[in-house]
Amino acid sequence: MKTSNHLYSNPSLFINGRWHSHEASSPGIDVINPANEVLLAKVPVASHEHIEEALAGSKEAFPIWRDTAPDRRAAVLNKAAALLRERHESIATLMTLEQGKTLAEARSEVVRSAAILEWDAAEALRFYGRIIPSARGMRNSVLMQPIGPVAAFTPWNAPIGSLGRKVAAALASGCSLIVKGPEETPASVCAFVKCFEDAGLPAGTLNLLFGRPAEISELLISSPVIRLVTFTGSVSVGKHLAQLAAANMKPTIMELGGHAPVIVCSDADPVKVAQLGATAKFRMAGQICVSPTRFIVHESIRERFVEVFVQTARALQVGDGTQPAVQMGPVANRRRLNAMEELVDDAVLCGAHLETGGKRIGDKGFFFEPTVLSRVPTTAKILNTEPFGPIAPIIGFEDLSEAINVANGLPLGLSAYAFTNASDNSGRIADEVECGILSINHYGGPAPDMPFGGVKDSGIGREGGSESLTSYMVRKTVSHRLYLV
Fold this sequence. Notes:
Blueprint: E1 12-15, E2 18-21, E3 28-33, E4 38-44, H1 48-66, H2 70-86, H3 88-99, H4 103-123, E5 130-132, E6 138-146, E7 150-153, H5 161-173, E8 177-180, H6 186-198, E9 206-209, H7 213-222, E10 228-232, H8 235-247, E11 252-255, E12 260-264, H9 270-281, E13 292-298, H10 299-315, H11 334-350, E14 353-356, E15 371-374, E16 391-397, H12 400-407, E17 412-413, E18 415-419, H13 423-432, E19 437-440, E20 455-456, E21 459-460, E22 473-481
Parallel strand pairs: 7-8, 7-10, 8-9, 10-11, 12-13, 12-18, 13-16, 15-16, 18-19
Antiparallel strand pairs: 1-2, 3-4, 5-6, 6-22, 11-21, 14-15, 17-20
Helix pairs in contact: 1-7, 2-4, 2-5, 2-6, 3-4, 3-6, 4-5, 7-8, 9-10
């Protein structure tokens, strides 16, 4: 395995205002470029002492940041957002090298994160408490106050997008936080944190750790310093962290996995919707929590939909995301390759038709063909397990009630999509599909001014919009008799 650090920055821990790089004598975690399997760097592993130092720094910084005027907090967030925009090309390059997504996708993620910072900075200035009408001589009010130091756990697939949501809301609310970043994509996260250091954020307000996830999560969540736990990732890990938090009486924000249904009604244009669907499905090689993953298409247009979807998938340029013409990069690691092969084999064994793809591309890098399966039985794993990869299963339906039942048939409910020009169809879908995020006639996700989160096993709480700061605040009821009797 070759080593190459060209254009890549060595990741470090950031604790109480100081950077801690990997030492040759200490254990480290390999960062691999998924496009060519080259070793990019070693991630330093946080020791018990590092974790305790981060906790101490966060505890000390919290009252300082809490008592900083909202307009000053907003100024720091806006400065960090400006630096993100200024440095978006270099940060996007880091993300593509370590995660594999195309540069266009990485650039979009950085800019989107900057927009979230700007929204939450403005929201900090208008997040009011309230005065409650009361008897003469009484003043009853509700104060909104930051909850305290936060432990944030962020994923490898959207290292800047997910991190931006958590950091923006926590800092805008007046909280300090400790981030356990993804070991697979550390350098882009370090570059994000560097923007806050350069924006003048007080030392200890934002800390960054990498290392052994089980050790870090247990120490952080059990510490009396931490007052809130926020996590983005898989359902299984989210439930484990939620149990740890419950045992320590800590509130949580959980943005977990999904298996997004796409309902395509008979009045939709099968050509346009299939082209849009294939483009959206294979974005980031399908490794995104809101990726469309179950295409439920009316039987009257299903064959034409499948035909165009397959044509679009076959035409995609797959390769190294740093190359301008590439439209889909690799999956994250060899484990994802194995998982894709197992899902395809199981679906075919169950009776599905393999329309295109289904296997690894080449023997260097973690590339998997854009894959389309049709006539997939409901017993196939691909319809019951979030694929998190470039596989699109397509099934038919005759009646909208049937499609809605299929969409709601899993214990997941993050995002969902629907295509129809009939208002009665769109109204029923909006009312009846169980999800936190519904997009009708497009694949765009929520803007910074809209809440993001799921229902059922897909999570607890919301990030984004006017709700973004709510979970990072406590409501204090104050009943004040104005005059002593």
